[in-house]
Amino acid sequence: MKIPLSYSFRNLWTRRLTTSLTIVGLALVVFVFAAILMLANGLERTMVATGSDENAIVLRKSAESEALSSVGLDESDILATQPEVALGADGKPFVTKEIVTMINLSKRGADASDLSNVIVRGVSPAGLALRPQVAIVEGRMFNFGSSEIIVSKGIQKQYDGVELGGSIKFGGRSWKIVGLFDAGKTAFASELWTDNDQIRQAFNRQGFSVMIFRLKDKEAFNTIKSKIEADPRLNDLKVLREKDFYAAESELLATFIRILGLMVTIIFSFGAMIGAMITMYAAVANRTVEIGTLRALGFKRRSVLAAFLFESLFLALIGGVAGLLIASLMQFISVSTTNFTTFSEIAFSFSLSPSIIITTLIFAAVMGFVGGFLPSFRAARLNIISALRSS
Amino acid sequence: MNLLKLILRNIFRHKLRALLTVLGIAIAVMAFGLIRTMIGAWYQGTEASAPDRIITRQAISFIFPLPLADKDQIARVPGVKEVTYLNWFGGVYKDKNNFFARMACDPESFADIYPEYQLKPDELAAFKKERNACIVGKKLADQYHFKIGDVIPLAGDIFPGQWEFVVRGIYTGRDRSTDESSMYFHWDYLNERVTKSSPGRANQVGWYVVKINNPTEAATVSEKIDAMFKNSDSETKTETEKAFASGFISMSSAIISGLQIISYVIIGIIFLVLANTMIMTARERIREYAVLKTLGFTGQHIALLVFGESLSIALIGGIIGIALIFPISAGFAKAMAQFFSYLVVEPSTIIIATVLTIMVGLVAGFFPAMRSMRMKIVDGLRQIG
């Protein structure tokens, strides 16, 4: 016969202080575990959301980031006329030739000298249309041909001096902020956009940084890739699917977060398992007479094992749920750090997903199981007579 | 009766519990030390900086290059002793995970401005003479088994193509904080190839390192240099070497803050594990303490026993944990070789870890000690336990 579950519950309740301490310890570990998974997930989602499968981006082969890339005027003209490039609503090639550069802005509440690099992107008229994830939410789109600029809402919130209606100085002139845009969870949420011609003049550039275009159809990507590789006028360039490019840009940072997080969590989980073990061993030691009584009453060894194991699992699951609840609150926090690859700011947040919830709960359960197993085993193996005899 | 002996024997009455508690504390202390060591790695650059060196880089971001032509202008600024320049090469040595700093420099001025990189005179001469020679730091040489005469092949990314450099010198750091894991080669060699393959990128430097006559003039000289290039195509930002290094740290400030928060969480966990044990221990021994009190031991004695036990467990765990920091940091550095070339465990980390362990030992023992001390003998003897 099985030992009723209420036995395990009530035992945990009786020794409340020890139980709560152990649960808090487990919750802390689960919190760190979940938070790290959520951070890496948040970064990944930002990157995945940023690129579209239907777009391709062209950069210089040697460039790891857009700001360091250059695509010449001739090269971009040749590419724009290729049949693999889709046509826009106006019948013209659906491309945007962009100049990507950076300016310094200071974060709200930070020292005036503590500056961060923020991307300024000069786009072609098709630039907004090619990125459906980006939409103007306040004010209006800038007029091509004038020194007007639109700022991401995320940037406006986090940084000083970029209010709607205000102006910002860089490149030797003043730019009027005429609109704020929402870019969801994409990398564009850390950018300012304006007319690429104006940027070209202000920064005295010949040519562009990158070129992005809509692919005509699925096979177009491979076709244009081979074309670029074969053409001596173009083979200093490389083309990638927009999605793949942005994923690669954040790979280093995401890898860092993941490895760091994983190792820290593994170390933590050992600590938590030991905490659970200590509690459970003490529980067994204190209830030796009880266990002897239970066995004398006829409960089998495996019922005793199950009861104690259940106690341990229950501890772990409460801790796990508590940790998850606190971790889910982190979703309101957004993180802005420098992307290792582009050396410019990227904002992302903690993002919870069903698979993270499941993984975390399994993690908690494993900790409870491993931590509780040996003590439960010992409880089960107690000799009835010596157990009853002990004081 | 020797209290210390009593304390130690008490600890090991419950061998398994003591072992687990010590182990738990050891792991937590090790994790704390590891995180501090990682954070310390970020700050390495600021420590190696010299007060008489200022760095001039492109005003927006150091990833944008500056023209070589600026060098002479900078050299003429009053207060400037000497100017050198460096380019970050990047590239890949066999595998993307084999990360170490690779830079192009001007050997003559570089050696003058960075006297803390020490080379044997014949090695320095050989380095200066050969076009594709390079020097590597001692730690780097040990890690990859580079010897004089070895060829280091690099696959360029920022500067595409296959590159080969011959090791002509292995430098050692004069100070403890001097970096010994970088590789330096000739800027002229880099520029030669760049001029041929992509002439638009030729004659550009990554940043200038300026040695000034008087460290107190750092701010004024910096301003003068920046004023010279203001409103030009390449505006500059000049700051002390320390500020330049700090700039890198603030880039990752979010991550560093996160790590610091985690280290505080760890301290919390240590406390919980120890407090848990101490509470259980004290609860079991209430009858014993009551008996001791009837024998004449005072409340203070009991408190000492409890504190002593708590401290001792903490210290034993702490010492083991601190000892473990070293191998774990080395392992970590290997796993994350792309980001950290190596991790040095600073004495300050060890000291802080020890102090924290002692504090946690005291705090964790506080309530059990107070409870045991104040308990009436009668109540204590009454406990069945």
Number of domains of chain B: 2
What number is the mean pLDDT of chain B? 87
What is the arithmetic mean of pLDDT of chain A? Answer: 87
Distance between the termini of chain B: 25 Å
Rg of chain B, Cα atoms, Å: 29 Å
Distance between the termini of chain A: 27 Å
Helix content of chain A: 40-55%
β-strand amount of chain A:
15-25%
Number of strands of chain B: 12
Q: Please identify the structural class of chain B as seen in this structure.
A: alpha+beta
Main beta-sheet annotation of chain B: 10 strands, mixed
Largest interface: which pair? A-B, 56 and 55 residues
Q: Helix count of chain B, per DSSP?
A: 14
Quaternary class: heterodimer
What does the model show?
The complex is a heterodimer of chains A (391) and B (385). Chain A is an alpha+beta fold. Chain A folds into two domains: 5-48 and 249-389, no CATH class; 62-235, no CATH class. Chain A contains twelve helices and twelve strands. Chain A has helices spanning 5-14, 16-50, 73-80, 127-130, 153-158, 196-203, 220-230, 242-286, 288-297, 301-329, 354-381, 384-389; strands at 55-60, 95-106, 115-123, 135-139, 148-152, 167-170, 173-182, 191-195, 210-214, 237-241, 334-338, 345-349. In chain A, strand 2 (95-106) and strand 3 (115-123) form a beta hairpin. In chain A, helix 2 (16-50) crosses helix 10 and helix 2 (16-50) packs antiparallel against helix 11 (354-381). Chain A is elongated and about 95 Å long. The mean pLDDT of chain A is 87. Chain B has 385 residues and is an alpha+beta fold. Helices cover 57% and strands 17% of the residues of chain B. Chain B contains 14 helices and twelve strands. In chain B, strands 1, 3, 4, 5, 6, 7, 8, 9, 11 and 12 form a ten-stranded mixed beta sheet that branches. In chain B, strands 2-10 form a two-stranded antiparallel ribbon. In chain B, helix 10 (253-284) runs antiparallel to helix 12 (299-335) and helix 12 (299-335) runs antiparallel to helix 13. Chain B is elongated and about 95 Å long. The chains are: A alpha+beta (391), B alpha+beta (385). At the A-B interface, helix 2, strand 2, helix 8 and strand 11 of A face helix 2 and helix 10 of B.
